[in-house]
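Support request, priority: normal
Reporter: lab tech (M.K.)
Component: structure prediction queue

Hi team, I submitted a job for Phosphonate C-P lyase system protein PhnK from Azorhizobium oxalatiphilum yesterday, and the status page still shows it as pending. I've pasted the exact input below so you can check whether something in the sequence is tripping the parser. The sequence length should be 259 residues. Please let me know if I need to resubmit or if it's stuck on your end.
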Amino acid sequence: MTDDAPLLVAEGLTRYYGARLGCRDVSLTLHAGEVLAIVGESGSGKSTLLGLLSTELEPSAGAIHYRMRDGEMRDLSALTEGERRLLLRTDWGFVRQHAEKGLRMAVSAGGNVGERLMAVGWRNYAGIRNEAIDWLSRVEIQPDRIDDDPRAFSGGMRQRLQIARNLVTKPRLVFMDEPTGGLDVSVQARLLDLIRSLVADLGLAVIIVTHDLAVARLLSHRIMVMKEGRVIEEGLTDQVLDDPREPYTQLLVSSVLAA
Ligand SMILES: Nc1ncnc2c1ncn2[C@@H]1O[C@H](COP(=O)(O)OP(=O)(O)OP(=O)(O)O)[C@@H](O)[C@H]1O
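Reply from support: The job had stalled in the queue. We restarted it manually and it finished. Here are the results:
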């Protein structure tokens, strides 16, 4: 298997909630180090698709194959529960909009980061603490806050801690669901900058859901536009946003310009 082999291939992903369509017949290929944005208005199926890709939701139809660290392409639906959990704890990250869903709020900042290291086999307390301090400083959290729990942190700090917790194991793929949503504009800008430089430094593959096209433009190489559960347009981010083909995408783009 060469490095050109895709990291993740999804085919025909479909999910119904009873009779209601979540998303339908979505196919995509993601390579290592590639950032894909999924955009669309509220209810268009973005979170459903992210849930399917991250195996949190079971598809009604379709399949996802993922290239494991040993190079083997595996059908994610055929993983054992143990293998799936290991993937989630080590090779993948998931940065959620609400940091309290991605952090352990009653555990110290250092513990939140250290816990993931322990999941990949780190045992030496001093080593774990040093690595946690290093990661806190990478996400611009003062080392003297290491023993505070995230309840004592601002929204932006919580989000930066969530990022450190997710990236400390050097995952190859990170899912992000509106990672800057709900924060003040100035906090958002700083966080986006941080995400952008970490993603580039670590060569991460990212699948990011956002309704904010400015976020997609800043972070992503490729973009998929969803409407009513389907992908209606996709391509290189700059091309799609500068010259949208679909009237719906044109509307999305122009409402941002008018904002
Ligand atoms: N748990 C659920 N039960 C029933 N229907 C659901 C459920 N979750 C999502 N849906 C439906 O699936 C469709 C897609 O929703 P989804 O949350 O994936 O969209 P979204 O683009 O992420 O929206 P938002 O930006 O508001 O989060 C919507 O019609 C929604 O009502």
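Residues 5 and 103 are 33 Å apart (CA to CA). The pocket of adenosine-5'-triphosphate is lined by residues 17, 20, 22, 40, 42-48, 211 (CB under 6 Å). Let us know if anything else looks off. Ticket resolved.
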